[in-house]
Design brief:
One of its GO terms (molecular function) is glycosyltransferase activity. InterPro entries: Glyco_transf_92 (IPR008166). This protein has 452 residues and is an alpha/beta fold. The protein folds into 3 domains: 62 residues; 264 residues, Alpha-Beta Complex (Spore Coat Polysaccharide Biosynthesis Protein SpsA, Chain A), CATH 3.90.550; 34 residues, no CATH class. It has 10 helices and 21 strands. The protein is elongated and about 120 Å long.
């Protein structure tokens, strides 16, 4: 017989019926039941999640209300668990913590000091006076302040210190801020003269830091000192220069640093410029003194490093490598040693080209030894434009300091001409070469820049 299909999925083949439709129907019903059970379980899980979440929120709200109460409970970080609760002994209300009624006028929100305490009701023992409060700020800011890292190792190079202060005064600085870790007696007397008599210097204490070596904090915490100086000067000076005692920012076409800044900002849009970076130029102390220094008119000129050392390394360091900078302190968040670490939003650094100004850095070879003198060099006498005024100012100050601090007189200098140098390629037995050597020596005396 043939095959016929019944209406309910009943299949009849050769007279034998096979019930397949009913089994498929039962399978579908069982699947639907499983899906329904899973949906119910998911719904219950969601309900449980929101219930637990609501319980946590309510618990936190009640705990916050309890902490804000006056029941003497507070959250103290420390102990066996950072979030553990400890019972504090109730303390009476203190008058200096009373709330101020009325509107929030300036006299209510201008604080005088800050302190760090372990508990809100603990008595402060380390109140720090707030600098530059709005009512204490000067109406007009001065132009330029100089910030110097802490003086250490019983620093006692008095002539170098006097030269630094007097030259930066000529360059337009209004004030110099230094930090005293350890200084010698003569240096202390000199700085006291500049601070109390001249009003050019502020010497701040930097003692008792309990540091064993630079492994703990680099160079007597210079970054803390630089940022302290930055924030102290923030509302007193338009610009702040952060340099060392052996570094001088020397303009090439201007006489003062302020003139240089105005000249640079007039050429370039200065709306976003909050710092000026100057490339470093090493004037190694191992190089011979300027050949004309022996005919100087005074011992002072022969003792000033900016006049003695005129030969510098030909290649300058790129910006951010041994460079130093002048900044607008109100636009700076954090100061670094060689460049600004963080500005306010929308501000940045202007890299000053070397033909406008560079950083004169007078020091010994940075890696030890004397190999640095073999590097290509050039004679740079830009600082000589300050020679006359610098010499006179140092002479006057040294005369006063000699009476007050009993400083020794500067040693007299030799009046002999510098020894003539012979070029190694010239043969002394040749008369022609002797004549060339003589002419070479004269050229060296009159134009030392020709020798590199």
């Amino acid at each position: 017989m043939g095959t016929r299909r019944a209406g309910f999925g009943l299949t009849i083949t050769n007279g034998n019926a096979s019930v397949t439709g009913s089994s498929n129907l039962n399978f579908s019903r069982s699947n639907a039941g499983i899906l329904k059970d899973r949906a119910n379980m998911s719904f219950m899980l969601v309900i449980m999640f929101f219930a637990v979440f609501g319980l946590i929120v309510l618990t936190e709200i009640f705990l916050i209300d309890e902490r804000r109460g006056i029941n003497g409970r507070t959250n103290v970080h420390g102990g066996s668990h950072p979030n553990s609760l400890h019972r504090l002994v109730p303390m009476p209300d203190r008058p200096d913590y009373e709330e101020v009624a009325g509107d929030f006028a300036d006299e209510y929100i201008s604080f005088k000091a800050v302190s760090i305490v372990a508990r809100l009701r603990a008595s402060p023992t380390n109140r720090i006076h707030i600098q530059n409060r709005p009512q204490d700020r000067p109406v007009e800011r001065q132009n330029l302040a100089i910030c110097v890292k802490p003086l250490h190792f019983n620093y006692n190079r008095v002539l170098q210190l006097v030269e630094f202060i007097e030259l930066y005064k000529i360059l337009g600085a209004n004030h110099v801020i230094l930090y005293n870790d350890t200084i010698g007696d003569e240096t202390g007397c000199t700085l006291e003269y500049y601070e109390k008599t001249r009003g050019l210097v502020s010497l701040l204490p930097w003692h008792g830091l309990d540091m064993i070596s630079q492994r703990e904090i680099r160079t007597e915490a210079l970054f803390a000192a630089l940022n302290d100086c930055l924030y102290r000067s923030m509302y007193k000076y338009e610009y702040v220069a952060l340099v060392d005692l052996d570094e001088f920012i020397i303009p090439r076409h201007n006489d003062t640093i302020i003139q240089l800044i105005r000249w640079m900002t007039s050429r370039i849009s200065s709306k976003s410029t909050s710092a000026l970076s100057f490339q470093n130029a090493f004037f190694y102390l191992q190089w011979p003194d300027d050949p004309l220094i022996t005919i100087a008119k005074s011992p002072t000129q022969a003792g000033l490093v900016t006049l003695r050392k005129t030969r510098r390394r030909l290649k300058l360091h790129p910006h951010k490598q041994r460079s130093k900078y002048i900044c607008k302190p109100r636009d700076i968040v954090e100061a670094g040693n060689h460049f600004v670490w963080e500005f306010l939003a929308g501000h940045g650094t202007l890299n000053v080209p070397s033909d406008a100004a560079i950083l004169h850095h007078y020091r010994v070879c940075e890696f030890g030894g004397d190999d640095c003198v073999k590097t290509p060099s050039v004679v740079d006498k830009t600082a000589y434009k300050y020679k006359k005024q610098l010499t006179n100012d140092v002479d006057e100050s040294w005369l006063e300091l000699g009476k007050i601090c009993r400083l020794p007189q500067l040693e007299p200098i030799s009046r002999q001409l510098p020894e003539r140098r012979r070029h190694p390629l010239f043969k002394p037995n040749s008369l022609l070469n002797d004549m060339k050597t003589q002419r070479y020596s004269v050229d060296f005396l009159t134009n030392p820049s020709r020798i590199v």
